[in-house]
Amino acid sequence: MSTSLTGEQGLADAVKAAFGDKVVGIKSKSKRVKITVDKDILPDVARFIRDNLDFDHLISVDGTDYPKDNTIELIYHITSIEKEEQRKYILSLATKLPRDSPVSPSLIQVWPAAEYHERETFEMLGVTFTGHPKLEKLLLPDDWLDIPPLRKEFRLPGR
Amino acid sequence: MSEPTDFEEFLKRVVTIVFWILLIVPIIVLPLLFFGSEILQALQLLVNANSIFILINKAQNPFLAFELMDSLGQGPCIATATYQPSAGCNPTFFRIVIFPGFTFVALLTLWLGWFERKLAAKVHMRYGPLYAGRISGVLQPIADILKLLGKELIIPAKADKPFFIAVPLLTMGISAALLTLIPLSERVYVVPPASASLGLLVLFAVLGFYPIIILMGAWASSNKFSFIGGLRALHQLVSYEIPWFLAVLGVVVLTSSLDPFQIVRAQSKIWFIVPQFIAAFVFLTATLAELERIPFDLPEADTEIVFGWLTEYGGMFWGILFGLSPFIKLYVFSGLFTILFLGGWLGPAFLPPEIWFILKTFVVITVIMFSRVFNPRIRIDLLIRVGWVYLILLAVINLFIAVGLKAFGVL
Amino acid sequence: MTSVARSLPFPTEVIVGDKLSISIGPQHPGSGHFRIIVVLEGDIVSEAIPDPGYVHRGAEKMCEFRNFVQNVPMLERTTLPDANGIIFPYILAVEELMGIQAPPRAQYLRIISAELNRIVSHLYWLGIYGVFLGHSTMFLWPMGDRELFMDLIQTVGGTRVTPSYIIPGGARNDLPDNFKDKALKAFGYFERRLKEYDRIFFSNPLVLKRSQGVGVLKRSEAIALGITGPNLRGSGLKSDTRKDEPYSMYETLDFDIPSYPDGDCWARGMVRFHELYWSMQIIKQAVEKMPSGPFRSRLPLLTARAPAGEAVARTEAARGCMSYYVVSDGTSKPYRVRVSVPSFRNMIGIPYLLKGGHLADVPAIYWSLDYWPVEADK
Q1: Residue in C closest to B127 by C-alpha
Q2: How far is B219 from B225, CA to CA, in rounded Å?
Q3: C238: left (phi over 0), alpha (psi -120 to 50) or beta
Q4: Roughly what angle, to the nearest 10 degrees, separates helices B62-70 and B76-83?
Q5: Where are chain C's structural domains?
Q6: Which CA distances in Å does A150 have to A64, B408, C58?
Q7: C309 by DSSP, 3-state: which?
Q8: Does C242 touch chain B (CB under 8 A)?
Q9: Which CATH superfamily is domain C59-377 in?
Q10: Within its chain, how far is the Cα of B74 from the centroid?
Q11: C286: Cβ–Cβ under 8 A, 6 or more apart, which residues?
């Protein structure tokens, strides 16, 4: 099923071939591929990456706040375990969310490991994951009433 | 730190003097007051090259001793004063309270605590107690007891207070009652030979109270961890008492007696550990479980249920429940093992029989203590399976061997 | 601190139907700064809910207000037993962003310090694992022998717990002359001790009873749940970042990745037990193969700027694959640092493995995953 892959470019090409223009951007450097897609096809791309490219091991989910572009970039870092020759790659699956109402489909069905990572992103950046079974505070205190702390307008006291 | 002022120096001296008075009065002065004439008589007997211990042969009711011991929680002197108004010279009381009874065993067990800590420290490659008492920290247990006595007794707000307080006292009473049934020799005993014909039965009966008291403490604490620990203790004690009784039954069959004196006398030819080695193994394993020592310390498993049924007990309550009472029980069970399997006080004549008994008991205690440093904690389902399946099976096999030996007249 | 507003099913009554829920932690001898709410049905755990966050300090946010170099001592405080291992990928990511290359000698120095920290961390784990199973000797022996390696870390980096030894551009200082003799002496002693560990603990029949077949994590589940490090290797996968994506100079060293197919607590323990041995072999080889030369390229300035860009770097820390995602916007402070710690990734295994087990297995399973609350909370 899986396509013949030759390095980072092969991975990028495989995704591009499957999803065409919906892939917003692809960056690749040594052992790292970053694929930016539209959030509507995020679950489809994730499933494709897992099933066809054998990227089955989620490293982390993280978000970066870009107030200048009014976006929050949500990134899933995935690597492969079953395919030994692919273990050296880290594939970053990114999507851009609007900063005012960051809502993204949860990828917990694709990678069950995303459960706590998505909860952390939810409380730290305020990204809502639709389809997550238990989107609650994880690390922050329960009485946290401030804005999500990893937003750029949250300033540390004294800094 | 500044230089000690005169006042601090004075305080230190007062504390030291009070400490020595507290130590000396119960051990020397009180016995002298109560039993002065008795001791003089004993010294006379000693001068006459007679035994110090042949004092009175009148039969005593063992249950009388229990009643006395049960009220001991209030303090020994008051108990005597109320129980025996005319007591000026009462050897039974001396035996119960001083030697070979409570004070002797309490001091012995205090020292056993120190010994266990040193033993474990040697295996762990560390020092253990080092400073108190200058010589390897021998006075550490006394320092610990003094510290515990000075602590506040905290009773949880939601606890069932009367039961909560009763549990340490009852545990102490039961431990003390058990030790009255362990004679040191033919001449040193609490319960005399004439009334000890059902000694083992009484011991089992007293031991049967123990799970109930634990459950009482666990329930009265109104703490979930206490409750789980109490249930664990109940399961454990019930599943290990039966193989324990069955193991003893082999010896009882061989000697046709429940009397510890008779059992020891029957071992003059051969110690029962040789024909009854299975029983000895079962007994020792069940003893570990009864004592709640590693690998069977589930009721107090600290990483699982904080401190089990002892979670809410602090201060001297803890000192009694975890310090004094288990060590007294350790002494009692080791002494019982010595009586049942190691020939009790029998031994070559160059040492007095009491010394033989204490030496053998000490060996058994050391063996029991060593299991702690080598083993992890066992799980409750494994524990119950071992108790109800393997140990009972072994004990029954052993019983057949005992009956066979008896029927064919080998022993 | 924890208010009742949280919708976690924290019990207000003692017994709900047939279920009893107890809170293991944060004030519990077997939890650390962490809470597991365990719902019991008899002695069987019907549900386990982890509740982290008691030591959350916001390391990721603090990173954005400090320079690249200032972040080194700050980030390593998340996991003090494994300080060098935890900071390693951050340094790699920052070097990638800044375009610095560490000299070969520095690469070996980093390997030595990281492997020493791996040994220390595993010994710490072993001691706590021993006492969690109720084995008092196995608590005190590793804690005592750990001092040997703490001394070695002190010899290498100057301090025992907060070395800040690996810095962008190389290592902070060179190896002292007496390190080799001292290390070989310690390793000779410790290899003998490993046999004794095996005899008293890993071959003890009661330990086998307690750990074999307990908390079984199947191979496929381990991959799906994103489990990493020794826990992954305990499930039969020979995956280690040191082999998968060799960084520094690991490709020049000859070592094996221990792996056990059972997936239970015992297998996870044995993986770590063998890693103790292999880490010593790695240090021995690294000391031999280390070329002479500079130990750092240049002193990094506090105000060193990194060109705009982003980098993902990962290494194998003691608890598993440690990875950092660093974004720079061209200033001297990182725009965003994402710390992806192995403990946080392994936390999902706690509710998964505890479910259906006995209450007595809770500490065994919990600690066999080597969950370090301070690391997971960041």
Answers
A1: C140
A2: 10
A3: beta
A4: 130
A5: 59-377
A6: 8, 87, 9
A7: strand
A8: no
A9: Cytochrome-c3 Hydrogenase, chain B (1.10.645.10)
A10: 19
A11: C108, C111, C112, C115, C249, C253
Least confident of B279-283, B285-289, C11-15, C164-168: C11-15
Interface test with C, best of B232, B292, B375 (most C CBs within 10 A): B375
| Among C368, C350, C378, CA closest to C24 | C350
Mean pLDDT across C258-279: 90
CB A35 within 8 A of CB A93: yes
Report which secondary-structure segment, H or E, holds B77: helix B76-83
What SS3 class is residue A33? strand
3-state secondary structure C268-283: HHHHHHHHHHHHHHHH
Give the CA distances from residue A49 to residues A43, B7, B211, B217, C269, in Å, rounded to whole numbers and listed in that order: 10, 81, 61, 59, 33
Measured in degrees and rounded to the nearest 5, phi and psi for residue B311 equal -55, -45
Q: Check: CB of residue B375 under 8 Å from CB of residue C210.
A: no
What's the CA angle centered on C304, arms C300 and C307, to 5 degrees?
A: 125
Q: Which of A72, A79, A78 is nearest to A39 (CA)?
A: A72
Q: Do C134 and B120 touch (CB under 8 A)?
A: no
Chains A and B touch (3+ CB pairs under 8 A): no
Which residue stretches of chain C are H helix?
Answer: 59-63, 71-75, 83-98, 104-132, 136-157, 179-197, 205-211, 219-224, 230-233, 241-244, 265-289, 342-346, 349-354, 361-368, 373-377
d(CA C227, CA C348): 8
Annotated domain spans of chain B: 6-97, 151-407
For the stretch C134-192, pLDDT in tens is: 888 889 999 999 998 999 998 988 888 888 888 888 888 888 888 889 889 999 999 99
End-to-end Cα separation, chain B, in angstroms = 72
- Which residue, chain included where needed, has tokens 């705009």? C308
Nearest to A45 by CA among A114, A102, A92, A98: A92
DSSP 8-class letter at B378? P
Residue A96 touches chain C, beta carbons under 8 Å: no
A-chain residue closest to C7, CA distance: A136
Task: List chain A domain ranges.
Answer: 7-101
Q: What's the pTM?
A: 0.83
CA distance B69 to B106: 14
Q: Two tokens at B248? A: 């003893």
Please tell me the CATH code under which domain A7-101 is placed: 3.30.460.80
Q: How many CB atoms lie under 10 A from the CB of residue A126?
A: 18
C178 touches chain A (CB under 8 A): no
Backbone phi, psi, residue A37, to 5°: -130, 170
Tens-place pLDDT, residues A84-125: 888 888 888 889 888 888 888 888 888 888 888 988 898 888
Burial of B46 (0-12, 13-18, 19+ CB in 10 A): exposed
Residues 168-227 of C with CB under 8 A from B: 200, 204, 206-207, 209-210
- Quick check: ipTM above 0.90? no
